[in-house]
Amino acid sequence: MALNFEEWVCPLPLRDHTTIVMGHGGGGQMSGELVEHLFMPAFANPVLGGLTDSAVFQLGGARLAFSTDSFVVQPLFFPGGSIGDLAVNGTVNDLAMSGAQAAYLSCGFILEEGVELSVVGRIATDLGAAAQRAGVTIATGDTKVVDAGHGDGVYINTAGVGLVPAGVDIRPQRAAPGDVVIVSGQIGVHGIAIMSVRDGISFGTEVVSDCAPLNGLVAAMLDVCTDLHVLRDPTRGGVATSLNEIAKSAGVGVELIESTLPVPETVANACSFLGLDPLYVANEGKLLAIVAPDDAEEVLAAMQAHPLGADAAIIGSCVEAHPGMVVTKTAFGATRVVDTPIGEQLPRIC
């Protein structure tokens, strides 16, 4: 199918850019436009059409989830992890958002000429240890080297497969009015951790990334409720972008209660200093769950009983009003729209 750029109609049409800009990789509106208008026409098929964190399909009688992700974070090492940890946890978590337990991962390294072998070795060690913690096997891989000045040190791509349990149907289209929105813990930590070390900004205390594999937490949730409606890990673009994507996919509105949002003081102070909104800051070890109201308390209790969900909280609900839109009720009783960002407040965070 030929691409007709003249027919694109977006808030900021991609045809306004003749080259790729950083905003196209930020997980916001520009990323969505790139996928919708360039990649989808080229690749369109029913499996890809769902645009979920991982594709779910039948193969040889098994129901599989399959996902791939690339990691270009700078710096390569940060408080709480490294690009190696992210490469495993990011793909494990994408699979978990379909209810699947990741089984096997592939791993591709793109190395820049001149990078120190000790750096590559440290990253590989981190990646292998993260795989062991997540209970997955690195089954295959690849290595490429690019000329000095063309690779920014180390890039990693991982892909993974896992089995989706029988009876589990987790996808954004299942969000329904009355459903409860739960977040598994404090938000905005990863993005601020990256910003602090990248730009040498001190916030009075070290901010440590929340990078972690969420497959164990999801398994604990499924043990008490197999009918989870939606799961999403709010990485690029944060909680706000993830909830906007869900709202649009399901045709529902989402209302958040600002006072219930678990924002740690260090993140709140950093965001105030930098002029950022914690709802848009990336996370790497948190998930959003949307569940039926009758299941909410039991799911919340299961999350709070798990180490990665100890600070889980109900933060809002799905509503019939304003379909496709996310709003927040403030402490003053006002309502503000929480829109999808154009690009990304903090680029290169994963």
Automatic annotation (TrEMBL):
Residues 53-164 form the PurM-like N-terminal domain. This is Hydrogenase maturation carbamoyl dehydratase HypE. It comes from the Bacteria. Pfam families: AIRS, AIRS_C. Gene3D superfamilies: PurM-like C-terminal domain, PurM-like, N-terminal domain. GO terms for biological process: protein maturation. Residues 177-321 form the PurM-like C-terminal domain. Belongs to the HypE family. PANTHER family: CARBAMOYL DEHYDRATASE HYPE, HYDROGENASE ISOENZYMES FORMATION PROTEIN HYPE. It comes from Kribbella kalugense.
